[in-house]
Amino acid sequence: MTPWLSVGLIIAVLLYAIFSVFLKKSIGLYIAAAFHIVLGLLSLPSIGFYVLAVAMLELIVGIVMTVKKVGTR
Questions:
Q1: Using CA atoms, how far apart are residues 63 and 29, in angstroms rounded to an integer?
Q2: How far does Cα 34 stand from its chain's mean position?
Q3: Which of 28-48 are b and which e, b meaning 16 or more Cβ less than 10 Å from the residue's Cβ?
Q4: Distance CA 39, CA 55 (A)
Q5: What is the pTM of this model?
Q6: Could you report the per-residue pLDDT of 21-59, keeping only the tens digit for each?
Q7: Less Cβ crowding at N or C end of the chain, within 10 Å?
């Protein structure tokens, strides 16, 4: 995978995650986290750890949003 393509995909999925937070859709964060985990593993020597850290943050925020949503019912 070319570096520019992977960076472009990482940024696109990050924007998708941001819009998922604004729309309060936790499933979007889980999808974005899955993509970031895959892209982070593919780009491990360079920026992979940062991408994996973003994926972990997306998972944590998605879980918090899900717990809040279930807790208000």
A1: 9
A2: 7
A3: bbbbbbebbbebbeebeeebe
A4: 10
A5: 0.83
A6: 898 888 888 999 999 899 888 888 778 888 889 899 989
A7: C
Q: How far apart are the first and last CA of the chain?
A: 44
Neighbours of 12 (CB within 10 A): 12
Which residue from 47, 58, 46 is spatially nearest to 14, judged by alpha carbons? 58
Annotate 31-52 with DSSP letters as a single string. Answer: HHHHHHHHHHHHTTTTTHHHHH
Token representation of residue 22: 């604004």
Structure tokens at 59: 């998972």
